[in-house]
């Protein structure tokens, strides 16, 4: 799923070194080499900067992963943090989409696609970073550096102008601060237990020995 795994290279083969390797039994031994690499430099076949494409394509995966892991990491505070991340994403998404429709600004170099202002990538990234920075203040530079790299990647890919990512960052930060300043929550309603017939369901991440459960069913 994560696009950061893309472009991984697994190369295995027998070495051509001379003399050949000899195993403990005296029989010829084989040497295998495995390598994992991710290219961040240069441009891809479409002419896009590779680092920008990597960051831009993976930001939503990392956002979802952060919400699930943070929500499942702590039985006491995890559900609250999961709800805050979800509420910030919902609020920033509503405001960003509304502004896109109102402003009707075309994308750089395009005339038909008129949803450029503000940047949705920057909005969601900064909403997530602000919630995480409030919860884990010692790692605040990491959260905002990641959000800034997501925003910068959109300009580098010529999908947004600078003013648009700045506006997106402002919307996302405002949405997160608004969520942190209120007890109201949409996610609280979505993560409550609900029942279908004799089966009880709950959408909330929890850590188990085998991984993370997102939707739990009990009957």
Written overview of the protein:
The chain has helices at 50-73, 78-103, 120-135, 140-156, 162-180, 187-190, and strands at 194-196, 199-208, 211-218. The longest helix has 26 residues, at 78-103. Strands 1-2-3 form a 3-stranded antiparallel β-sheet. Helices cover 48% and strands 10% of the residues. The protein has a domain at 50-188: Vanadium-containing Chloroperoxidase, domain 1, CATH 1.20.144.10. By secondary structure, it is mainly α.
User: What's the CATH C level of the domain at 50-188?
Assistant: Mainly Alpha
Shape: globular
Q: Whole-number average pLDDT?
A: 77
Strand content: 5-15%
Descriptive keywords:
219 residues, mainly alpha, Vanadium-containing Chloroperoxidase, domain 1, 3-stranded antiparallel beta sheet, globular
Quick synopsis:
The chain has 219 residues and is mostly helical. It contains six helices and three strands; from the N terminus they run ααααααβββ.
């Amino acid at each position: 799923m994560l696009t950061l795994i893309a472009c991984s290279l697994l190369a295995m083969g027998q070495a051509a070194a001379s003399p050949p390797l000899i195993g403990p039994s005296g029989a010829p031994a084989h040497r295998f080499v495995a390598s994992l690499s991710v290219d961040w430099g240069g441009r891809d076949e479409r002419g896009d900067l590779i680092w920008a494409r990597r960051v831009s394509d993976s930001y939503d995966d990392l956002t979802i992963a952060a919400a699930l892991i943070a929500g499942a990491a702590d039985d006491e505070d995890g559900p609250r943090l999961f709800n805050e991340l979800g509420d910030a994403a919902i609020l920033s998404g509503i405001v960003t989409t509304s502004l896109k429709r109102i402003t009707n600004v075309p994308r750089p170099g395009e005339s038909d696609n008129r949803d450029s202002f503000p940047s949705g990538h920057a909005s969601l990234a900064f909403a997530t970073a602000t919630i995480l920075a409030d919860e884990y203040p010692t790692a605040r530079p990491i959260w905002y550096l990641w959000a800034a790299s997501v925003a910068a990647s959109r300009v580098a890919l010529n999908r947004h102008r600078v003013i648009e990512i700045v506006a997106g960052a402002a919307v996302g930060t405002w949405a997160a601060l608004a969520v942190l300043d209120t007890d109201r929550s949409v996610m609280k309603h979505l993560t409550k237990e609900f029942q279908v017939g004799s089966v009880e369901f709950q959408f909330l991440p929890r850590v188990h020995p085998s991984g993370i459960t997102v939707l739990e069913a009990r009957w």
